[in-house]
Amino acid sequence: MLLSHAFGLFTHPDDEWASIRKEHHTPRRLYVAYVFILAAIGPICAYISTAHFGWTIGNDRLIKLTEISALQMSVLTYLAMLVGVFALGYAVNWMAKTYGAREEHVPSYGIALASYSCTPLFLAGFALLYPVPWFNAIVFLIAACYGAWLMYDGLPIVMGIDKDRAVFYGGALLTVALVILVSTRVGSVILWNFGVGPVFVSG
């Protein structure tokens, strides 16, 4: 089962990457059986916490989002995550030949690397059930660092390249990931200007 990889990447990542390389699942199957499920963790937890638990900043009163606003934000976040994983996977395949990857014509490798490397970020979504900004920031920072390391660790195994090349390959992919992140932030601002923004209420 594809979801078993989520735990293996934390306990024995090298063996798990080798197993992933042998599977050759289609991008569609990876999305349906893995990304669609794990990417929903964060948005669902964010909806529950922002609409029902609320949060405080300093000694201010409790702040929540309206249920409709929280639902809109969660759905948009979910869609952005799906697009981001696909864009990162596409970048892996697009750069593959440049860095000497073998069998770069197999599109599942790029999506697999992107999907499984994002696993820590997917699972970090559980932290949103405790809506404290500094706590969430620390958890997601740790998850992002481990996800970046997973990408670097998996590149030579899945794409069949030397570890020296994986450093530059991983650096290029990290740049792409940052561009995707900035794009989602810009997209959020644009959507907020069209009225699809957060609506706050006092707890």
UniProtKB/TrEMBL annotation:
InterPro entries: Yip1_dom (IPR006977). It is found in: Membrane. Residues 7-183 form the Yip1 domain. It is a multi-pass membrane protein. It comes from the Bacteria. Keywords: Membrane, Transmembrane, Transmembrane helix. GO terms for cellular component: membrane. The chain crosses the membrane at residues 31-55, 75-96, 108-128, 134-155, 167-194. It holds the Pfam family Yip1. This is Membrane protein. It comes from Marinobacter similis.
